[in-house]
């Protein structure tokens, strides 16, 4: 799986969708982990908003392809608005959905 905002990643589950089918990658916000450098990780984007809530930090990001995502970190963290960031995730925790409608085709 890959696109302009996602480095190539293998999802370790068999798909029931036909080859060439458009799929949407789903990852829960708490499974996204920031990397030390923006160019590292599988997802790359820009910080829109950071909400520091004491025991956790919620971040709103715009990926390189314009898609907005939310990341929830289990700690207090500081990220400046406009900062370039990289995130990694465990591909075993990712889900694939067919097309625009989240009909799960792999888990």
Helix proportion range: under 10%
Task: For the record, give the distance between the C-alpha atoms at the N and C termini, rounded to a whole number.
Answer: 14 Å
Give the helix/strand class: mainly beta
DSSP summary: helix tally: 0
- What string, H for helix and E for strand, traces the elements in order? EEEEEEEE
**Proportion of strand residues:** 35-45%
Instruction: Tell me the overall shape.
Output: elongated
* Strand order in the largest sheet: 2-6-3-4-5
Mean pLDDT: 83
Q: What profile does the largest beta sheet have?
A: 5 strands, antiparallel
Backbone CA Rg: 14 Å
Report the count of strand segments: 8
Low-confidence stretches: 101-107
Describe the structure.
By secondary structure, this protein is mainly β. Helix content is 0%, strand content 39%. It has no helices and eight strands. The strands form two sheets. It has a five-stranded antiparallel beta sheet with strand order 2-6-3-4-5, with no helix packed on it.
List keywords for this structure.
single chain, 107 residues, mainly beta, 5-stranded antiparallel β-sheet, 3-stranded antiparallel β-sheet, 39% strand, disordered C terminus
């Amino acid at each position: 799986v890959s696109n302009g905002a996602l480095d190539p990643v293998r999802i370790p589950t068999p798909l029931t969708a036909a080859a060439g089918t458009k799929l949407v990658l789903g990852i829960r916000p708490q499974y996204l982990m920031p990397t030390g450098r923006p160019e590292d990780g599988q997802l790359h984007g820009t910080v829109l908003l950071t909400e520091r809530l004491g025991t956790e930090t919620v971040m709103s990001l715009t990926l390189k392809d314009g898609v907005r995502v939310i990341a929830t970190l289990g700690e207090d963290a500081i990220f400046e608005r406009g900062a370039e960031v990289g995130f990694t995730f465990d591909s075993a925790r990712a889900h694939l959905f067919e097309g625009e409608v989240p009909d799960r085709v792999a888990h």
